[in-house]
Amino acid sequence: MSQYDVVVIGGGAAGLSAALVLSRARRKILVVDAGKPRNAPAAHMHGYLSRDGLPPGELLAFGRAEVRSYGGDIIEGAATELVPDGRSGFWVLLADGQRISARRLLVTTGLRDELPNVPGLRDRWARDVLHCPYCHGHEVRDRRLGVIGGSPGAVRYAQIVRQWTHDLIYFTPPDMLTATERSELVARTIGMVEGTIAQLVIDDDQLRGVQMDDGCVIPRDALFVPPRFVPNNHLLRGLGCAVDDGGWVAVDGTGRTSVSGVWAAGNLVDPRAQVITAAGTGSAAAIALNAELVDDDVRNAVRDINQGLAS
């Protein structure tokens, strides 16, 4: 079985950026991509210099083509386990039974969004139920917006969303707002609706409003929801990589984890990284990976020469 210099697990912006840098460095690279990008429901991607407004799927298609043009390999599949090979490399086990050998690993499996349990919310995700105001706020500017609160930091999040509209409602369960939070919301003319949301009101495949449990409907054109971010860290935890209290993988400035030979990048490390930020962390990890592989190559070359002289 052939051995790859680096197997990249995750084919999003971070993984593909790393694969591009490494393949241009003439490394033998494989990207294993499960084909389930977090931003798949979004129609457009914003904030990525020179690619603003591009559909996310097109960015990934361009990235895959670029990696392949430099000789990198990409396969569709799900990695189920990462196993040290007993030397200095790893086995990557795939769901279809394949076993792939790698000198180094870069894991960019991202995160998943856990949304509040509101009927209809998930169905509208990335359409008119949104998470990132920097990604989507401009597109819904000056419209009737809402923020679903109740989670830590949600009031601060609403204050940020206020930047894009003068008509903002903050929805929160009763008795959660402090006196300071109330005064801050009032100061910036953010309305408050306290109660339990029964469902979203949808008409002609568009969000029309938020229905409370008392039957009252508050007209809204789009909602922002601060979701709970959950890292897809099971592969690295299985290897024994250190994580913080929130489950985010601990890395140094280059993306190196606590396990020798293993790097991580993108939303798996930084839940707030946008697409352009994730791509940058992938690129930085790739440069560090190649430098470590060069050190290996030097040691191996010196060893081979010494063994030849000894014989």
UniProtKB/TrEMBL annotation:
PANTHER family: THIOREDOXIN REDUCTASE 1-RELATED-RELATED (PTHR48105)
Name the UniProt record assigns to this protein: NAD(P)/FAD-dependent oxidoreductase
Keyword field contains Flavoprotein: yes
Entries under InterPro entries matching the protein: FAD/NAD-bd_sf (IPR036188), FAD/NAD-binding_dom (IPR023753), Ferredoxin-NADP_redctase_2 (IPR050097)
Keyword Zinc assigned: no
Annotated keywords: Flavoprotein, Oxidoreductase
Coiled-coil stretches: none
